[in-house]
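Open question from group meeting: does this chain pack into something compact, or does most of it stay loose? Before anyone orders reagents, we agreed to write out a predicted structure and look at it together. Recording both the input and the output here so the notebook holds the full record.
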Amino acid sequence: MIYAKLTSKNSVLTLMSVALLGLLAVPVATNAQNVAAAGYAQPTFADLVDLSDRSTLVVHAEIRRQTRVKAERAPDLAPGFARLYIQAETIALISGSGGLGESLDYLIDVPLQTNGKPPKLKKQQMLLFAREVPGRPGTLQLAGPEGQLTYSPELVARVRPILTARVSPDSPPVVSGIKDALAVQGTLVGESETQIFLDTMDRSPVSISVIRRPGQPAAWGVSWGEIIDSSARPPAPETLRWFRLACSLPERLPTVANLSQGAAARRIAAEDYRLVIDQLGPCERQITQG
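Structure tokens returned:
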């Protein structure tokens, strides 16, 4: 990142050349992601959770100045893009704490226009997903190349529930995979119950139950704790709990995780897991890779 507040064009370029030598650059992403970085793409719910998870700050800012970084100082830049040093003014801190001042600076990759020049971003308002650079007040590192999105009240209204859910006492843990699954057949034909236990990053217990009864549609739910709740329900779409499952679970139940006894029970476990995945629906992303 750029570690100084600069007042003239020459000083901007001089100090940029020094700062860029030690820059921990954001990894180069696909063109679609870089287009998103300029604020031109519409993020999905999953995109917004991805960005929120990577950030400690969400800032509403207005761009005051942009300076193009010379190509030799951005060797990892994708073809057809320009790297800009942005100086901006804080309008509001949407999420996060600390001594964030009125002035901000950061780097961003943007697609070139048909004339070979970067778009003019001055006076545009952006929503920034970022982290502060330690010891460099006002300097931000965006949460990836897509960490700058065009500001709108509607976008903030979509982001706020995510930010609130992430810091709530019952915020769901990050799911990292399947621990094991076990299907048990009942005494009646078509009766069974499958328990699927999940791995989480903080080792918090999470389990999915799928219950089948003769003549009834299969019912499933998620228990977010030690106690397996037989009345648990699926998470509502486009909630943080939905995201933790839909955007983390594998498409199929891993064979090594299926502890069911017998071919019939193993088939039921696999089918019940497939039911859960189908009803959760796809985790759609437009600007992030998760």
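Observations to bring back to the group:
Residues 263-280 form the longest helix (18 residues).
The chain has a mean pLDDT of 87.
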